[in-house]
Specification:
The complex is a heterodimer. Chain A is an alpha/beta fold. Chain A has six helices and five strands; from the N terminus they run ααβαββαβαβα. Chain A is 28% helix and 11% strand. The longest helix of chain A has 13 residues. Chain B contains 16 helices and 15 strands. A five-stranded mixed β-sheet of chain B has the order 1-2-5-4-3. The mean pLDDT of chain B is 90. The chains are: A alpha/beta, B alpha+beta. The structure holds iron/sulfur cluster. Iron/sulfur cluster binds next to helix 3 and helix 5 of chain A.
């Protein structure tokens, strides 16, 4: 026990300041400001891997480490969609996961937010659309915020999550206090060649 | 493996380690496998290709490994009605690979188990995606399949279905437990949920670009996959990479191993009820990833290894930073290892939990880090000398208890050994170019890449097509071999120990489902 305490004391507090929300990641503003204010105080997230290569999951895991300390910001990952305010979805949606993703979305109580993670979650990424994949998350459920990157860095993920729950509306219209907006069509490219211009390390 | 007594002709196969390629009849396929098994060889992979456009029907490929190297048995099936013998009678682990080969290419096996494996009703069961005349239709809707799980009957037996969406942040898969009280009688896995059509996608790419997709077969092993892909392509094109490039590749591979092992050690502590471990190890892992970002420009090192060499060189200051980090990490890991070893509660959870005996491990071809925890002392970095490992004298981790504690110990041993390797690599980096241009790639050539990733050996089998296209690329994750062993490892344990046992293997879903 002494060594455990010594190690804890020696390590000190590593947690860094939260980044600013990234308004440019917002693709649809669907919730009223008052709801967002409540959600913003304590947010529960259900993560769904809808077909990723597991690279995005590694960076989502990193959010829990002492540097980003997402729980310290009042954001918690939960085991059931029924307890969740937000779905954090990775991957090009594989056809084998489409039904499970849809069901998870339906099981999440309203009002709910959806954050699509990674180039694959945004557009299908390197895997594109095929006999086995449906492309981006937006092709199956409505998406509020899209976080690009392959994989996005933990900071980018935090910026995206905070953008979704931020009452600071995107600088440009629409403002979050307006009523629900229709989801713009997610652009899905049928990639025949690998998009070589993908930013490294999700620099945004 | 010497196949000449069987009357089989062998040709050399382009590969970084000794490898041969042998055309076999159906009878020879069976005898060669049996001989390999008797001599201590193992099945590495089984896959099929459609060669009807070249008037060669279908080709079933079976890759075996023994202490001499790799043997690729190639068996031609003239048409889709032809069947090949059931190899799972010799190598039980062939079962799922045979089923997947049918789902994707439509080659039939004589086996009793004819259930689909990769197929889950996303496309019609009589259409085979890896055939060359396959045309996907936009009308196909993702359906639901009714998979025939094995039932266990008896007094007090009940069933717990789990997944595909799990409680934690992990990949999707389905587990069906048959239990009595809390004790697991049987576990059956159903995988394939993250099938993304990777093999088909390869065929749309230029052969020089394929490394990027290879590096995304299983994101946690991106360096191992990209390197294996580069090896396969370089073998086909008879290209030697500059010395500095292979040193940098090894540096990345060892950093990938350290990052993953540190992450796992944290989660294993956490699953054993010791949250302190997670906080500490995830902190150390983050330090490794941050230095990766600063030095190589990517936290997970994606797209670092490219055919012909590596994408970036590193400067002397970066080398010094890495050495400093090795020094600090070694100190911290040793302290944490002592804490883990002396924590009675943790050891109580780790010891004799999820045990795989060396006999079972041999029978089921357990591989990689889990293999080294069950007395299977294989490690490509020591067994076959590929640069730069030929000069490093890698010390193999070797444990034999086969329980969670042994898999934890292997990770600790390997982290410390990788730290030593990085220091050695950093001490004497050869000065040379870091990349050379790829010569013209011969058409219809087959080559292999085989790299000891952190989880185990990662294989890429690559076949070139006309005009620098990819005719066929089969990535094969060590998880194919280890998933079935996990089913055995949980028998007799209690259900609440499953997450711990599962984590101690930490297998890839994406790398397996493709
Ligand atoms: S965005 Fe990149 S890291 Fe994330 S799932 Fe796709 S390929 Fe993997």
């Amino acid at each position: 026990m002494w060594y455990v305490l010594k190690q804890i004391a020696k390590t000190g507090i590593k947690t860094e300041r939260l980044p600013e929300p990234a308004a440019e990641m917002v693709v649809a503003a669907r919730l009223h400001e008052d709801i967002l204010r409540t959600l913003g105080r304590a947010l529960t997230i259900r993560q769904v891997d809808a077909g990723s290569c597991n690279g995005c999951e590694l960076e989502i895991h990193a959010l829990g480490n002492p540097y980003y300390n997402i729980e310290g910001a009042g954001i918690k990952f939960v085991a059931s969609p029924r307890h969740a305010d937000m779905l954090l979805v990775t991957g090009p949606v594989s056809k084998h996961m489409a039904i499970a993703l849809r069901r998870t979305y339906d099981a999440t109580p309203d009002p709910k937010l959806v954050v699509a993670v990674g180039d694959c979650g945004c557009t299908g990424g390197i895997f594109g659309e095929s006999y086995a994949t449906l492309g981006g998350v937006g092709s199956v459920i409505p998406v509020d915020v899209a976080v690009p990157g392959c994989p996005p860095s933990p900071t980018a993920l935090l910026q995206g999550i905070l953008a979704a729950i931020s009452t600071a509306a995107p600088r440009s219209e629409p403002s979050l206090s307006s009523s629900a907006q229709p989801l713009p069509e997610t652009p899905i490219e049928r990639t025949h060649r690998i998009p070589l211009e993908t930013p490294r390390d999700g620099t945004i | 493996m010497n196949v000449s007594p069987l009357g089989i002709a062998a040709a050399t196969l382009p590969s970084p380690i000794p490898a041969q390629r042998c055309p076999v009849s159906s009878g020879q396929l069976l005898t060669a496998c049996r001989l390999a098994w008797e001599q201590g060889g193992q099945l590495v992979a089984l896959w099929a290709s459609d060669d009807r456009d070249r008037d060669r029907g279908f080709c079933l490929r079976v890759l075996l490994r023994d202490s001499d190297g790799l043997t690729l048995l190639e068996h031609t099936l003239p048409d889709e009605g032809a069947r090949y013998p059931d190899l799972s009678l010799i190598f039980p682990v062939a079962n799922r690979m045979q089923r997947a080969a049918f789902d994707l290419v439509g080659v039939q096996c004589d086996a009793e188990d004819q259930r689909p494996w990769t197929w889950q009703a996303a496309w019609p069961i009589d259409c085979f995606p890896l055939r060359r005349d396959f045309e996907p239709s936009p009308k196909w809707e993702a359906g639901e399949e009714d998979y025939a799980f094995v039932k266990v009957a008896g007094d007090g037996v009940h069933e717990i279905p789990v997944g595909p969406v799990h409680a934690g942040i992990i990949e999707p898969g389905h587990f069906r437990f048959q239990v009595v009280g809390e004790k697991v009688l049987r576990l059956e896995q159903r995988l394939g949920y993250v099938h993304k059509g990777i093999e088909k996608r390869f065929e749309t790419l230029n052969i020089e670009d394929g490394y990027r997709l290879a590096g995304r077969v299983s994101g946690d092993s991106t360096v191992a996959y990209a390197w294996a892909y580069a090896q396969a392509l370089e073998s086909i094109s008879s290209l030697d990479v500059p010395a500095r490039a292979s040193w940098l590749r090894a540096l990345c591979l060892e950093r990938e191993r350290i990052a993953n092992h540190l992450g796992d050690l944290g989660y294993l502590g956490n699953d054993g009820g010791f949250a302190f471990g997670l906080a500490q190890f995830s902190r150390l892992k983050e330090q490794v990833l941050r230095l990766n970002r600063d030095v190589f420009g990517h936290r997970l090192l994606m797209d670092m290894v490219i055919p012909g060499g590596v994408a970036h060189d590193i400067e002397a200051a970066a080398v010094a930073a890495m050495r400093r980090q090795c020094f600090e990490l070694r100190h911290e890991v040793r302290i944490l290892r002592d804490i883990y070893d002396e924590h009675a509660g943790l050891q109580d959870r780790f010891r004799s939990c999820g045990q795989v005996s060396p006999e079972l491990a041999t029978k089921l071809a357990l591989t990689g880090l889990a293999g080294r925890a069950s007395g299977i002392a294989h490690d490509l970095r020591c067994d076959f000398f590929c640069p730069p490992y030929d000069t490093l004298g890698v010390r193999k981790a070797a444990q034999s208890d086969g329980d969670v504690a042994a898999r934890v110990a292997v990770r600790f041993d390997e982290v410390l050994e990788s730290l030593r390797l990085i220091e050695t690599l950093a001490e004497a980096m050869p000065e040379s170019e870091i990349i050379v241009p790829l010569p013209e790639v011969p058409t219809y050539a087959v080559g292999l890449g085989y790299v000891e990733g952190w989880r185990g050996p990662v294989l890429i089998a690559l076949e070139s097509g006309p005009g620098a296209s990819i005719r066929r690329c089969h990535p094969h994750d060590p998880s194919w071999l280890n998933w079935p062993v996990l089913e055995h490892a949980v028998i007799g344990n209690i259900v609440p120990d499953f997450p711990l046992i599962n984590k101690s293997f930490n297998l890839s879903y994406s790398g397996h489902d493709l």
